[in-house]
Sequence to fold (268 residues):
Amino acid sequence: MWLFWIGLALVAGYGLYWLAKDRRDPLARSVPRKNFLPPEMALVPVMVFVMASWAAAPLLHRLADGYSDRAAGLGTGSVGMAAATIACLGMGWQYFNGGLTGFLLGNGRIGRQAARTVAFLLMSFPICGIVFGVTEWVFREFAPDYPMPEHGVIEALRDPEEPPWAPVTLWLGAVIVAPIAEECFFRGIVQTVVVTLWRRRWAAVLIASVLFGLAHGAQWQAVPALTVLGIMLGYLYERQGALAGPILLHTLFNLKTLTWELYGAGGP
Fold:
């Protein structure tokens, strides 16, 4: 709970500072990330994800024979995301100035990036928590009979019928593979392509964030909160010009969410 109040205090402080002193578009001071990424290349990680998931499915379902198929399905997704990550990193190495270093670390001001990332992580707790709570309240009030599904990873971790290897792969998939893959694709590739095409950073942040939220549509009540999280991640990416901060924020956010859900606190 104390993380919630610290984050809320940071949100209030940032808002008051902007109202009192700044009032400029914060993305006007974004760090440019020079690249020559062709827009059509954004489809490559998607195709790699589909093909890798399809190829891995038979083996993982065979390993899960006699157990629930849920972990095998989630593991298939993790394999696809890992393959898509490799594709994104290859594109970053080939098309971004500075190669992988430029793609992941930008201008290399690690201390400033880390401080801003921690601040945004703390602010994400109250902001996303409030949006998630309001979304659940709206559906309970206006569609009380509509089921609100639990996250597949949480269900699998709680299921004693899952195979013995499932917990390790589920934690690694949710806390390591998914954050890296999703940030490399939605921020590193999609957001960059939209900025290149339209020259409008806020439009790029919003488009990538909506796609990011919809990608989590299996748990539909979390889509608004995760879209808001995507906006925070996209803003951080534009301001820093590097993926390291968004990846770290996403990793810690997922770790917090899994831990809180498994111990009964709940959250997006």
Remarks:
- The first helix runs from residue 2 to 22.
- Residues 105-262 form one domain.
